[in-house]
TrEMBL record:
PROSITE patterns: HEMOLYSIN_CALCIUM (PS00330). Gene3D superfamilies: Serralysin-like metalloprotease, C-terminal (2.150.10.10). Pfam families: HemolysinCabind. GO terms for cellular component: extracellular region; membrane. This is Calcium-binding protein.
Amino acid sequence: MTANLEFYQGFDMRFFENSGTAFHDSITNGTIAGNTNSGQVVIDEGVFGRDVFGGANLGGIANNMPTAGSVSMWFYYADLGDGSLSEFWNFSFDYVAANTFSSFVLDDDVGTLFQTYVLAGSDHITGSDFDDGLLGYGGDDWISANQGDDYIDGGSGADFMDGGSGNNTFVVDNAGDTVTAGNGSDIVLLQLSLAGTSYTAPDSIENVRNVAISGAWLIGNTLNNALIGANGAADTLNGRDGDDVLNGGSGGGDAMYGGTGNDTFYVDNITDFVTDNTDTVTAGSGEDEVRSSITYTLTDAARLDIENLRLVGTAAINGTGNALGNVITGNSAANTLNGLGGADTMRGGDGNDIYYVDNSGDRVLETSASGGVDTIRSSITLTLSSYAENLQLLGSDAINGSGNALANRLAGNGEANLLYGRDGDDTLTGNGGNDALYGGNGADQLLGGNGEDWLEGGTGQDRMTGGADADMFVFRAGDLAGSAATCDRITDFSHAESDQIRLNAIDANSANGAGTNDAFTFIGTSAFHQIAGELRYQVINGNTYVYGDTDGNGVADIMIRLDGSHALVQSDFLL
């Protein structure tokens, strides 16, 4: 008599060796082997290094079985903790002829080890209440696993497999196989060629995976299914009802139909076809998500009812939404995310991400200041969300943009934009149009570009470049320092272009007390006369410095540097 004992992957494999020759019966390398002699079995268990033997409770074993009968076997192992014997497992079987078994039962006395038994022919196998591996091989088998997380493979025949409760795995390799299960999350491993046909998940089975070489047509049921295609094959997956997960596998152009429910699709091939409804391209019920390892868009006609897109993997890929309110999530690389129509939520994650915003309901969520340098390109007025660094205004509308507490780069479009840096050392670029640039706090750089621009640096040591046309450089109380090392700087002041320096928001005479706003008196290049409110300039080393004395002590309290040598006149200022 020979029958294999196998231990399934994920569990420890234990080989048994014969410790004696008295009875010439043994378990060797996972095989029960016997000769023509009858008797009890004496075994040495190689893993633990202790003898395992039958004792008084070990029943007789019929090693040579020419006629019908029954066999019962008990195995024991020595516990390493205290040396006492503990029951390992026991089984019994009936036989109708030599080497042909009709039934096999695993007892549930011990549940610490994974039990596997293999029978040839048409078998009736019953598992224990623990984690069993039940293998039928040839013949039309009837296998009932009872409780536990079981692995059931009926073999090549038309088998009936009942997993019972627990999270069970079934191997289906015959169109006549029948699978059923109770509570738990179960999976069918499909090893069946399905050319021109389909496989529908049985009513009690949640998950199906095609492990054959060829493509398969997998159909879900009313449960929350996971349908997984074969790598390299072109699979067709239809989730039907429930919140399904559809994954065509790597390689191959797969077709995935979500049906109703909140479905999730995995895409890794540009030819993968995804839709949420098998009949129409209108939005089905539920909220669905595509998870893609390639650049992907939801705008194709078949994808117009998919709400969400998540980029996976580590490649620098991009994601585009559709007219719905999408949730688009990037991966750890540099992604470009564009929600298109609808009120979209975009999360870039790590990497230098680019976002396109076109709806007042769009939200950009960056969760970490270390998550790359991110840019929002917006066709509407926008304030940067936390942890987003840069803003670029798009389109032909006169829209506005504001920064946050970071060092932002804000850029206008060709129209009249208002840009406000707020906190941080910001760079503001107006580009075309008559722009208004406000630096806010920090050492800011303001670049007006073309057009008649308003440049106001705010507090901090700012640098301003007006660009072409008549620009206004604006200063307020508290904006200006009184030393050359820390003063604000104008790089391209031009009397010829009618540029002006606006100081009329500063009280020129602080001695008059709070609430007054006296004007400056321009005295050209003359020295201060120790009179509060005087404004003068001086050219030093090729650059022009403007000084203002607000307390009348003859020392400059405010200072502005103009790059280059200029002969300033009163009309260059608003005093």
